[in-house]
Each structure stands twice: as C-alpha cells, then as structure tokens.
Design brief:
It is a single chain. By secondary structure, the chain is mostly helical. The chain has a single domain (70-282), classed as MetI-like fold, CATH 1.10.3720.10. The protein has 10 helices and no strands. The chain has helices at 7-19, 22-40, 76-112, 114-128, 132-143, 147-173, 177-184, 189-225, 237-244, 253-280. Helix 3 (76-112) packs antiparallel against helix 4 (114-128), helix 8 runs antiparallel to helix 10 and helix 9 (237-244) packs antiparallel against helix 10. It is elongated. It starts with 6 loop residues before the first helix and ends in an 8-residue tail after the last helix.
Length: 288
C-alpha cells in the first residue's frame, strides 16, 4: 500500500495537474488579466471616469482613446477598468456571503437530519424561489438602489445554492467508515464536520464558488442595467450597456465593448471551474 501523500505533495500534485489542464490555464489567464485591470484602476486610469468632456463625445477608437469615448466624452477604457473593479467586488462579496452562510447551514442540516434538515431545506427552497433581480427590487424598494443592496440581493440568492451543495456532499460522507470511526472515538458532529466533512467537500465548494462568481458578475450587470446596481457617476458594465442601447446604430462599440467584457470575464471563470473540476476528479488522478 502506498503511504499517504503529505499536504505539500498534494498541493504540488494539484498545481501540476491544473497547469496541464488547458481550460484552467486559459480561464486563469483571462481572469488574471481582468483582475489585474481592476486592481490597477484603484491607482490609475487613462482618464478620470467622472470627468465629462462633451467636445470628445462618441469618438471612435483611436490612439488617444483606444476604446473610444461614450456620449458624455468619458474614456471607455477607463470605464471598463473601473467597471471591472465594481463587478468583481460585488460578485466576490456576494459569493462570500452565500458561502459563509450557506455552507454552515448545509453541513448542519446534514449532521442533524430529521426535522431540522427538512425545515432548512424547505426554507432554502423558499429563498431560492426569489431570483436575485426580484430580491433586489424588493430591497431597493425599501432602502433604495445601490451596489450594497445589489450585493445583499445576490448574496441572499447564493445562500441556498451553497447550502444544497454542502448538504449533498456532507450526506454522502456521513455513512463512510472513517466518519463512523471518528464517532466511535468520541468526536462530536461539529468536530467531525470541521476536521473531515469540510476538507472532503472543499473541491465541490471551490467549483461551485467559481460558477457562482461568474453568475454574480452576470447578476450585477443585469441589476445595473435596470438601474438597481452601482449608481452614476460610478461606471458599471451593465449601466454602460443600458446607456448604449439607444446609440447602437451610430456607435455600436458602446455596447460591444462592455458586452465583450462581461462575456470574456464569465467565460474565464467558467473555464477555471471546468479546469478545477477536471483536476480534482478522482478518476483522473494517477498515483505512482
């Protein structure tokens, strides 16, 4: 019998398999470029996105403005950079909310079983019945539109998703021999969940996290498109699409550029998820 792999060996094995996966490499490269663009926007953009220069309105892509300008004369490249920052921030925090609340709920439901499990799952079904857009409409009707409310709405929508994934993964592990041995050794359900359940469902949560991250960017763009996300003058990819819809004939690049930014970012995240899923698939692992 082969000795168990140490943690550094496992990490090195995962990294080598991930780098050999084409989907992961392409997705990681795309996502890294978008993330770097968003990070740079904190310190520098070619132009001030809040400065309106009417004389430069709707200029096509040029050397001075590589992606052109919008109907207010703002530089499109600068707006794409700041929009990336907003989209990533909203999606990342929303996924963190969903994972931080949903995973403990799902693991608790799997550990307790019975009426607790049933009640939590039915409550999840109730929350899941309200999509992020509808939740945002209800929240903004009370508190007003804004990025914070968009984060709350998308985060609430993510909670039942992670609860279902973590519960399903945990339920498949509780009857396993090593869990039974831990219970026989006197370990409680909380300790077993932390030491054994969570490490063994981490791959499922990681893949689901990348998927929800991509969906979060789409949801943020949708909410901004209908005016419930980031508010002007803060740029948002969804808001840029909304502003461009009446100018498609005279300046189609106003819609093509933010639309491609959304498509490419979501594609990169989905490719990362596919790559991680393939890398962590036990059927694809080979041990010497």
């Amino acid at each position: 019998m082969n000795p168990p792999l140490s943690e550094p060996e496992v990490s090195a094995g995962f990294l080598s398999r991930a780098l050999a996966n084409r989907s992961f490499v392409i997705g990681f490269t795309i996502t890294a470029i978008v993330a770097a663009m968003a990070l740079v926007s904190f310190f520098w953009t070619p132009y001030d996105v809040t400065r309106l220069i009417v004389a430069d309105r709707m200029q096509p892509p040029s050397f001075e403005h590589p992606l052109g300008t919008d109907h207010f004369g703002r530089d499109m490249l600068s707006m794409i950079m700041v929009g990336a920052r907003n989209s990533i921030a909203v999606a990342l925090v929303a996924v963190g909310i969903g994972m931080g609340i949903g995973v403990p709920l799902g693991c608790w439901a799997a550990a307790r079983g019975g009426i607790v499990d049933e009640a939590l799952m039915r409550f999840n079904d109730l929350v899941f019945a309200f999509p992020a857009l509808l939740s945002a409409i209800m929240i903004t009707a009370i508190f007003g539109p804004g990025a914070i409310n968009a984060i709350i709405a998308i985060g609430i929508f993510n909670i039942p998703v992670f609860a279902r994934v973590s519960r399903a993964g945990a339920l498949s592990l509780w009857p396993r021999e090593f869990i039974l041995a831990s219970r026989a050794a006197g370990k409680g359900k909380v300790l077993i969940t932390v030491e054994h359940i969570l490490p063994n469902i981490a791959n499922l949560l990681l893949v689901q996290g990348t998927i929800q991250f991509a969906l979060g960017i789409l949801a943020e763009a949708g909410l901004s498109y209908v005016g419930l996300g980031a508010q002007p003058p803060m740029p948002s990819w969804g808001r840029m699409l909304f502003d461009a819809q009446t100018r498609m004939v005279v300046a189609p690049y106003l819609a093509i550029i933010p639309g491609m930014a959304i498509i490419v970012t979501v594609l990169g995240l989905n490719l990362i998820g596919d790559g991680i899923s393939d890398t962590l698939d036990p059927k694809l692992r080979r041990r010497p």
